[in-house]
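Feature request disguised as a bug: please show the residue count (366) next to Methylthioribose-1-phosphate isomerase in the output. Example input:
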Amino acid sequence: MVLQAILYEPASTSSPPSLRILDQLLLPHRTTYEQVSTCEEAHAAIKQMKVRGAPAIAIVAALALAVEIGAMVVAKKLSDAAEVVKERLNQRLEYLKTSRPTAVNLGDAVGKLKIVAKTAALQPEATSDSVAQAYIAAAERMLIDDVSDNKAIGEHGARSLATAGYGTALGVIRSLRAADMLSRAYCTETRPYNQGSRLTAYELVHDHIPATLITDSMACALLAKEGDCLAAIVVGADRVAANGDTANKIGTHSLAVLARHHGVKFLVAAPRTTIDLGTASGQDITIEERAPEEVTRIKGPKINPDGRILVDEDAEVISTAADGIDVWNPAFDVTPADLIDGVITEVGVVVKVEGRFEFGSLFQKS
Ligand SMILES: CSC[C@@H](O)[C@@H](O)C(=O)COP(=O)(O)O
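Example output, currently without the count:
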């Protein structure tokens, strides 16, 4: 079974909805789920990266507010008018949106959920409960859609990659593996937060996918040595601008440059909620800059006097940099569309036509 980052229980007749998130800061050493009952808890968990990744951030924010408002419904604390509940939802959503700036999925979810609350409050028979229930149903729908969208991305990626004879982000890799079309995947460690070595590698091992971990600085050597055997580099995305420029985890742009130099396909796998037609190009994307300590310190093993090594949250924080050095720590970079060969979405793969990506058709109702 695929590791679940989000565990959500809808309300029952007697209990409010509940939300638990996998604390990704403790992986790979501990698989610990943490209760999220308020927007403040969700905001902190997102900012600290206990939950991370563009779609997951949006869903945790949406569901945390569902849990908060659901508890008020069960406790019969929502005695205010429909309009007041709508305003409360709007304010809480705006607050959640401030947790992380780069990924568009959170802003997109906030915009859609505000429309749900507004529409529900405009109904002739609207009550505070009906607005709350409409909100909760929409947030729950986002979770359901995310799971099915990810599966579809994997399948589209695997199918098109198979046709063109090249390989695949993790959903695509899982689909290729399921179709017995993958001999090996390589994942990078992803300094400074090590999402690659702690999380992606953990999932690859968990899913029994043959995989090899390299440091970010080894990617060029790997491409020089194995470039002919590598089918493609596949990355996720936090925001794809209208022209195809793509913000993703720091280091992505370097991989795209390397891929182009070595003649390897470079593909972005992302749901349509990550495509931001309101952002013209990568220059308009806000890049989050994070604390210097993420670069200058690591959690190292703590060796007890009895020789036991502790490698979990009790580990010691070790400085790996000269004290006093200035640090720049952008969490994301922007890969120019020019270096991207295709964008794999849940409804199909978009490739460039006459050198340009055209995403508009992805959003047209059939
Ligand atoms: C499916 S997640 C896609 C992106 O959000 C992912 O590649 C990424 O850059 C995540 O950054 P993070 O800082 O770990 O939230």
